[in-house]
Specification:
binds adenosine-5'-triphosphate, 10 helices, binds magnesium ion, Rossmann fold
């Protein structure tokens, strides 16, 4: 590929979601979601429990079907396996590795380099190089031979992310990686993710309930509650009152407040 073609390719957004609607168990969970993420962006995805964050990630990854709309990955609505290999997913429970699994950090990261074409062979020098780079990037060199059950929560999170990095993923989707880790580990993990965008040109979409933490680290924040209620710069993220307004939540202390819902429930014979 010529350098001009390479430049053009790098301008194609890793993700373009257009008017996406998704049903789960017959109920509309995502409605008309539009979201474009450009290369090198670190986007924080926040919202209430059940707001549809994990559903959006699973739909982007092709694990859930959508009812309406379009998803383009690196410009492809029907991504080939080589395009799909650019995606790395760290699930909500990825770092909950059972204690009885005896695996060192290096072995865990090595798993990231396996695909259907190289599973039966010993690790190639290229694979070993990918593993070395991922361990280095994640700052896990001093503990690479340690059993993963002996790592701190933050180190374990970095190890599962390093496994994704070893797969050469360019667009990393993380579901709640900050859960259960202490403040210092959380800060180190966010710094590490920020470096991945700035120094390794990765693109990150990360779900978190920790709005304050993600606001400090991400470039852009998206608030999702069935629909996108906010999409903009992290430092302009709405305060609590504006957020309540965007979500259609009324102040119960407002003198103009009328609780139609209560009357409706009474009409239905409920108390
Ligand atoms: N396996 C499932 N089958 C059917 N419906 C589901 C399933 N998982 C989630 N849902 C529903 O889909 C909606 C969105 O759930 P989702 O898990 O995407 O929310 P979320 O924003 O990730 O929430 P949380 O912050 O709690 O992880 C919820 O109403 C939920 O009940
Ligand atoms: Mg979720």
């Amino acid at each position: 590929m010529s350098s001009a073609e390479l430049m053009e390719t790098s301008k194609i957004p890793p993700l373009k979601v257009d008017k996406l609607s998704v049903n789960r168990s017959g109920r509309l969970v995502l409605e008309d979601v539009c979201l474009t993420i450009n290369r090198g962006e670190f986007v924080g995805l926040v919202g209430p429990n059940g707001g549809g964050k994990t559903t959006l990630l699973l739909t982007i990854l092709g694990l859930l079907k959508h009812r309406k709309g379009n998803i383009e990955l690196y410009g492809n609505t029907r991504p080939s396996s080589s395009v799909l290999r650019k995606l790395g997913w760290v699930s909500q429970h990825a770092s909950n590795i059972p204690k009885n699994i005896k695996l060192t950090v290096r072995e865990l990261v090595q798993l990231g380099t396996l695909n259907t074409s190289n599973m039966l062979w010993p690790f190639s020098s290229e694979q070993n190089e990918q593993v070395d780079q991922a361990i280095e990037l994640a700052g896990l060199k001093p503990v690479e031979n340690r059993n993963i059950s002996k790592l701190s929560g933050g180190q374990r999170q970095r190890a599962v992310i390093a496994r994704v990095l070893a797969s050469k993923a360019e667009f990393i989707l993380l579901d709640e990686p900050l859960v259960g880790i202490d403040r210092d580990s959380r800060n180190a993990l966010l710094k590490f993710l920020d470096n991945l965008c700035h120094e390794a040109q990765k693109t990150i979409l990360m779900i978190s309930h920790d709005i304050a933490a993600i606001q400090q680290a991400s470039h852009r924040m998206v608030f999702l509650e069935e629909k996108i209620r906010y999409d903009g710069a992290a430092d302009c993220f709405p305060d609590l009152a504006d957020l309540a307004n965007l979500r259609g939540i009324k102040s119960v202390h407002d003198s103009n407040y009328s609780d139609n819902t209560l009357y409706q429930l009474e009409d239905m014979g409920e108390e």
